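Input (structure):
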């Protein structure tokens, strides 16, 4: 049962019904898209701050008095990944408690703390590793923006457009990884590899701008407010954990590879900072652009089908990396990694589309069994928002696993990424089996599993 609506004071909007076509065309679409654009801006900057250390470690060398080892540099990218993953659940809950506009203002403004700290210390010779670890941990707050943004957006769009909306929102946010890496490349190419503070300086006015625009132009929606215990209820549903596992494979790979790619090129091939930066931005850029594509494909073919094909292709792409590593082929290695980024982006979009689709199908089954349609679909929407937060948090932990695997592989006697690639290959094959067995395998009665085809929600009855 949904909680009582909050009084329409300030910037709170009540009676939000995106499934009502007349309401949607009259005013809902315009309001939802305005909030989506500003949500993407905040999330984009959050991703940039979160992944900032994947760029700053490329500058860290004896030339600026920060001669850390490869193992220490991998640790510097692991810490913000871990903190960002841990914050996703509370961020997902916070937006349902405080509202999309209110929380976006806070989540944007708080990014100034780690950004200013990094700007002050990153060019101070002799700064100890623990200082940067603390600053990197504080930068993890940028990773939480994803969960609050996605939870907010999923309630604003009708079921038929959620794959597109979630793909745009997440893809625009994911572009923050590519953006800061491109800025890093421009700084290295023009000013050299001894001025990391220039990279950070770009984001200080952008953070202030995003906070101001969110305060002036965004809205809070009572529809986003979750019923008490929604996350606990979602945690008892098996779909929550199956989809979270799949999201470890897609988003965990995307963010893990995005953070580690430059260091991998330096450790595997001895690439210079300029060589590393020249390639690291392309993969995250393509992966981000393909996330909405994954959502659109899932809207058309079903999230599970697209996800299954994606994991099969990711396993093949990992095989290419193994071959390139054995042969010492720099070009093939770059090509294989770039293809993996594209596939992770596609899989991110299709896997997230599986969340509302799976719960909408459960709602349809409940209606068939005689339950009230409005209550069944309201519950499905409420659980979808909660699962988005849980899956986002669990999936981000995959990025921690990726970076720990690389840290272990390149700290070993062989100093090669092959053990890590073998581990990734095995995990992708597990994801293939889970996707087929849980979401595509035919049931005994001959009916399809949970998300074998796109679901048409009973929109008019919600």
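Output (sequence):
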């Amino acid at each position: 049962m949904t909680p009582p609506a909050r009084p329409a004071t300030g910037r709170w909007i009540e009676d939000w019904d995106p499934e009502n076509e007349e309401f949607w065309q009259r005013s809902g679409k315009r309001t939802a898209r305005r909030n989506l654009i500003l949500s993407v801006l905040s999330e984009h900057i959050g991703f940039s701050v979160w992944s900032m250390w994947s760029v700053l470690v490329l500058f860290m060398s004896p030339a600026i008095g920060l001669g850390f080892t490869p193992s220490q540099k991998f640790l510097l990218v692991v810490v913000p990944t871990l903190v960002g993953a841990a914050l996703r659940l509370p961020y997902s809950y916070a937006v349902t408690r405080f509202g999309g506009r209110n929380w976006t203002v806070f989540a944007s403004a708080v990014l100034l703390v780690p950004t200013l700290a990094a700007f002050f210390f990153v060019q101070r010779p002799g700064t100890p590793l623990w200082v940067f670890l603390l600053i990197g941990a504080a930068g993890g707050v940028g990773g939480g923006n994803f969960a609050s943004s996605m939870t907010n957006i999923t309630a604003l769009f009708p079921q038929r457009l959620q794959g597109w909306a979630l793909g745009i929102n997440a893809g625009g946010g994911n572009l923050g990884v590519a953006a800061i890496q491109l800025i890093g490349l421009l700084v290295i190419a023009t000013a050299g590899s001894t001025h990391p503070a220039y990279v950070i300086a770009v984001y200080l006015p952008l953070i202030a701008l995003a906070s101001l625009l969110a305060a002036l132009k965004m809205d809070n929606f009572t529809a986003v407010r979750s019923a008490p215990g929604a996350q606990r209820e979602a945690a008892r549903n098996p779909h929550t954990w199956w989809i979270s596992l799949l999201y470890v494979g897609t988003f965990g790979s995307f963010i893990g590879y995005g953070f580690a790619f430059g260091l991998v090129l330096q450790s595997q091939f001895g690439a210079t900072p300029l060589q590393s930066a020249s390639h690291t931005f392309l993969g995250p850029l393509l992966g981000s652009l393909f996330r909405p594509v994954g959502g659109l494909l899932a809207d058309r073919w079903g999230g599970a089908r697209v996800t299954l094909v994606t994991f099969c292709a990711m396993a093949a792409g990992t095989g290419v990396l193994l071959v390139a590593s054995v042969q010492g082929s720099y070009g093939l290695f770059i090509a294989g990694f770039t293809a993996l980024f594209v596939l992770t982006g596609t899989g991110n979009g299709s896997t997230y589309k599986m969340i509302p689709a799976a719960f909408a199908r459960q709602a349809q089954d409940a209606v068939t069994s005689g339950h009230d349609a409005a209550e069944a679909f309201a519950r499905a929407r409420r659980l979808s928002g909660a699962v988005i937060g849980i899956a986002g948090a669990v999936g981000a932990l995959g990025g921690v696993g990726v970076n720990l695997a690389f840290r272990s592989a390149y700290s070993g006697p062989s100093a090669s990424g092959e053990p890590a690639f073998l581990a990734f290959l095995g995990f992708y094959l597990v994801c293939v089996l889970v996707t087929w067995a849980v979401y595509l395998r035919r049931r005994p009665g001959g009916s399809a599993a949970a998300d074998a085809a796109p679901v048409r929600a009973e929109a008019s009855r919600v």
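Notes: Strands lie at 12-13, 220-221. Residues 1-10, 455-462 have pLDDT under 50 and may be disordered.
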